[in-house]
Design a protein that fits this description.
47% of the residues lie in helices and 12% in strands. It has 803 residues and is of the alpha/beta class. The radius of gyration is 44 Å and the shape is elongated.
Length: 803
């Protein structure tokens, strides 16, 4: 019953399906569904059974199909059926398939005509079919019966729309010959989703039940009420034939005899009947496969290209070959060393554009976090002066000192130097942890070999911890060296001249630029607004935008302090404030300026920059600190001021030295040592374990992945070879030219479209007017008396009653 092209395509498409299904790949040809749409008792199920060639659907009066039946036809050597809800059970008796459909339908809908949109999935394997999906849908009804809901019409229409709105769904609009075609619900629904008529085929059933003297010749010739793809007439088995167990083959012979012997149809008998309908659908399948293959071939080729390199590596890898295992181990360790160095040095092939990683994060610790920690410990001015005061008075004892004691200077300096140990140790810990995270990032590529990954992680982590310990000892030694001798002859120490000149040189230096929002300006004065800020060693200025042409204000940094501001409940901004320690206004009539940025990282960076510019955080005394010491002795005040300046001068040398030496020490003792260890010592330590063969045992996941890649690669090559065998000379039928189908009124042109299907719902009782068409040569049995008068413009000769 199929055409020559389809007969050639069937085995090739089946081979293609077999090649790809072996690796769980879908053929992706998206063969069309065939949805049979029509009213109750229109003969939909009979048409569907004729495609299968078997009698397996429930029969009866009224609404029989009460759930969608998705029928998948699969080409196979044996003939049997399977239900999705009865996995593993094969039905070889098609009468049992019918009973199972009835049982499953009643399970959800009951036995009193209820309906359900939940489909029944049935697979039929047969050597006589092509892989195809057919859908039997409930018949369109308007009057609820039994347990059916009041909106049964809308539910059925929505159910139908879910299927026929798909572009790969062919619509068989089934209409009995003894009804009014102009008001066919099936054609109206098809018109909604297929206005051009490219996938709608009219099917006229029950031609043998028309009144004597009437026929459907002009309809089937597509001259009256035309469709783009025209109409095909079929004659199904009557209920008497079905009850008498008349098989489908005998019914097809009777159908052929009917068309050949009927005077109105014999001239077009070759274009009528179920076999012709099957050929028409088969031709559509042929066209679809031909249209789909080029894109499908390109898709398979792109998949094959993406797998070529990996498949070639797996093909050369032999899990049981000791030499191959050793070579793979060597290559993996070499790649690990290269990847680690690229992440640290910032020369990776793949650049992360979302987050900082590796060397960039370590650089940030070097130049943002560590300087910020150092500046924080030198910012408590009141505490420093109190300690100097106590030191001077304790050194003098009961005597009144005439000169400033150098021992007080040395005691304060050593105490300040000792306070550096905490930030330095924290600095080492942060860098070590970041280094371990970088190693984990590289080692994750060894996940195919779990034992190798675990041992490599253990060995490298132990090396990092060992170097971290050495670095910690070295840093503590450097601090102890600074404590051992206070070099007051340093070229940068005292004279206030050198200290002040260093500040003056920084006046013109721009420390930071960026966008900040002034968040504490009232709504009446313009509200919060974003400006472009520039921070130097002397001032904080802001401009209208980053072109820096229109300066809004310049705030001197003298007597400014920094404090945190709690984040608002509904705010996503991170806020800090600057204020004047002498309670002066910092901007217009504002005592403080609240500045907001978009992230915690940006906030920390701005704080660090302000500390570099000399704007220190506000320190709030805890309980029991008491008020600042009142200096009543002018001589003591001068001594405190002198030592304070000396300490400040000397500690600036220490801070500068530590900021310079710490990154160098860590780089030398930890980062470079670990890089050298991975590139030259790691492989030797792995060999020293004496379990090289066990290290290269694949994980079960990797083994499955390797086998899957090789199978998929072979399947893709086979599939492309199969596609190459499909003849492009398969006969095709061009789409018929458009026709005037305006006689089919949309189901409801003035209503909004259905949210699920995109089609407009029907209103019960709404019957749009039918336009006039040319007067037919003789009336047909498709029109009632009123319908005939509407179509022809002439009064009818009498009532028409179909038999």
């Amino acid at each position: 019953m199929g055409n020559r092209g389809m007969e050639e395509l069937i085995p090739l498409v089946n081979r293609l399906q077999d090649a790809l299904s072996s690796v769980g790949q879908s053929c992706s040809l998206h063969l069309p569904q065939i949805a049979v749409v029509g009213g109750q008792s229109a003969g939909k199920s009979s048409v569907l059974e004729n495609f299968v060639g078997r009698d397996f659907l429930p029969r009866g009066s009224g609404i029989v199909t009460r759930r969608p039946l998705i029928l998948q036809l699969l080409s196979a050597t044996m003939e049997y059926g399977e239900f999705l809800h009865c996995k593993g059970k094969k039905f070889t008796d098609f009468d049992e398939i019918r009973k199972e459909i009835e049982t499953e339908t009643c399970r959800l809908t009951g036995s009193n005509k209820g309906i359900s949109p939940v489909p029944i999935n049935l697979r039929i394997h047969s050597p006589h079919v092509l892989n195809l999906t057919l859908v039997d849908l409930p018949g369109i009804t308007k009057v609820p019966v039994g347990d059916q809901p009041a909106d049964i019409e809308y539910q059925i229409r929505d159910m139908i729309m879910q299927y026929i709105c798909k572009e790969n769904c062919l619509i068989l609009a089934v209409t009995p010959a003894n009804t009014d075609l102009a008001n066919s619900d099936a054609l109206k629904l098809a018109k909604d989703v297929d206005p051009q008529g490219q996938r709608t085929i009219g099917v006229i059933t029950k031609l043998d039940l028309m009144d004597e003297g009437t026929d459907a010749r002009e309809i089937l010739e597509n001259r009256l009420l035309p469709l783009r793809r025209g109409y095909i007439g079929v004659v199904n088995r009557s209920q008497k034939d079905i009850d008498g167990k008349k098989d489908i083959k005998a019914a097809l012979l009777a159908e052929e005899k009917f068309f050949l012997s009927h005077p109105a149809y014999k001239h077009m008998a070759e274009r009528m009947g179920t076999p012709y309908l099957q050929r028409a659908l088969n031709q559509q399948l042929t066209n679809h496969i031909r249209d789909t293959l080029p894109a499908f071939r390109s898709h398979l080729q792109s998949q094959l290209l993406s797998l070529n390199k990996e498949a070639e590596q797996y093909r050369q890898y032999s899990p049981d070959d000791p030499a191959r295992r050793t070579k793979t181990l060597l290559q993996l360790v070499q790649h690990l060393a290269v990847d680690f160095e690229k992440l640290i040095e910032g020369s990776g092939d793949k650049v992360d554009t979302v987050n900082l990683s590796g060397g960039a994060r370590i650089n940030r610790i070097f130049h943002e976090y560590f300087p910020y920690e150092l500046v924080k410990i030198e910012s408590d001015e009141r505490k420093m002066r109190r300690e100097i005061n106590y030191a001077i008075r304790n050194i003098h004892g009961v005597r009144t000192g005439l000169f400033t004691p150098d021992m007080a200077f040395e005691a304060i300096v050593k105490k300040e130097i000792s306070r550096l140990k905490g930030p330095c140790i924290k600095f080492i810990d942060m860098v070590s942890q970041e280094l371990i995270n970088t190693v984990y990032q590289c080692i994750n590529k060894l996940s195919s070999f779990p034992k190798l990954r675990d041992e490599t992680e253990r060995i490298v982590t132990a090396e990092i911890r060992e170097q971290e310990s050495k670095c910690r000892d070295q840093v503590l030694l450097l601090i102890d060296i600074q404590l051992a001798y206070i070099n007051t002859k340093h070229e940068d120490f005292i004279g206030f001249t050198n200290y002040l000149s260093s500040l003056s040189l920084a006046v013109v230096q721009v420390i930071r630029k960026g966008w900040l929002t002034i968040s504490n300006i009232g709504i009446m004065k313009g509200g919060a607004k974003e400006y472009w800020f520039i921070l130097t060693a002397e001032s904080l200025s802001w401009f209208r935008d980053d072109e820096e042409k229109e300066k809004k204000y310049m705030l001197p940094l003298d007597n400014l302090k920094l404090r945190d501001v709690e984040k608002g409940f509904m705010s996503s901004k991170f806020v800090f404030a600057v204020f004047n320690t002498e309670s002066r206004n910092v901007y217009k009539d504002y005592k403080c300026l609240e500045l907001a940025c978009n992230s915690q990282e940006e906030l920390d960076s701005w704080k660090s920059s302000l500390l570099r510019a000399g704007v220190y955080p506000e320190k709030v005394d805890g309980q029991g600190n008491g008020s600042p010491e009142n200096f009543t002795d002018p001589q003591l005040e001068r001594q405190v001021e002198t030592i304070r300046n000396l300490v400040d001068s000397y500690m600036s040398i220490i801070y500068k030295t530590v900021r310079d030496l710490m990154p160098k020490t860590i780089m030398h003792l930890i980062i470079n040592s670990v890089k050298e260890f991975i590139s030259s010592e790691l492989l030797a330590q792995l060999y020293a374990l004496g379990e090289c063969s066990a290290l290269m045992d694949e994980s079960p996941e990797q083994q499955r992945h390797r086998e899957e890649v090789l199978r998929k690669h072979a399947a893709l090559k086979e599939a492309l070879a199969v596609i190459g065998e499909i003849s492009t000379s398969t006969c095709t039928t061009p789409l018929p030219p458009p026709v005037d189908s305006s006689w089919i009124q949309p189901s409801s042109p003035t209503l909004p479209k259905n949210s699920l299907t995109g089609a407009r719902p029907m209103i019960r009782g709404h019957a749009p007017p039918v336009p006039r068409v040319p007067t037919p040569t003789r009336p047909t049995a498709f029109q009632s008396a009123d319908g005939l008068q509407q179509l022809t413009g002439q009064p009818s000769r009498g009532p028409f009653v179909p038999r």
